[in-house]
Amino acid sequence: MVDIEFQYYDKTTCKRCISTDKSVKLTLRELKKAIKNTNIRINFKERKLPESKIHLSPSILIDGKDAEKVLNKNSKLKTNECSDCCHLTSQPVVNCRTFNYKGENYDYMPKEMITEAINLVLKTR
User: Fold this and answer.
1) Which of 18, 36, 55, 60 has CA atoms 20 to 30 A from the CA of 46?
2) Residues 96, 55 contacting (CB under 8 angstroms)
């Protein structure tokens, strides 16, 4: 069993959360096809984060481990201003999560990053 948890603040307005939601759902669709004839099972859940944890949004946890940390144990949580969440919270500045994957910076977690992290967790079992 692989536990995958998508943590987000808002999937209706925030482009980061919307894009990460699309990435994780596409990844899961492909993964389910790939493991169809194996004994591996996926337990997927989503968790809406409270405003106090907005800086963690969006995040993907794989077996309780942050996907970015799975790929790079030395990675540090990075954030930058998210205009969508500024609007949602009526705060002048709201910082949400960013990601670095293969030398590129993203405001959402790309599908390839999620796929690589899941595959790495599966290989280390």
Assistant:
1) 36
2) yes
The one-letter amino acid at 60? I
CB count, 10 Å around CB of 26? 13
Going residue by residue through the chain, which has 125 residues, state the pLDDT in tens, using 9 for 90 and above: 999 999 999 999 999 999 999 999 999 999 999 998 899 999 999 999 999 999 999 999 999 999 999 999 999 999 999 999 999 999 999 999 999 999 999 999 999 999 999 999 999 88
**Rounded-to-integer distance, Cα 23 and Cα 31, Å:** 12
Which of helix, strand or coil describes residue 98?
strand
Cross-strand partners of 44: 4
With beta carbons less than 8 A apart as the criterion, state whether 46 and 58 touch: no
- Nearest Cα to 99, choosing from 63, 65, 59, 64? 59
Tokens of residue 91, six digits? 């705060």
DSSP letter string, 27-63: HHHHHHHHTTTSS--EEEEEEEPPGGGGGG-SEEEET
Nearest CA-CA partner of 2 in 93, 96, 99, 120: 120
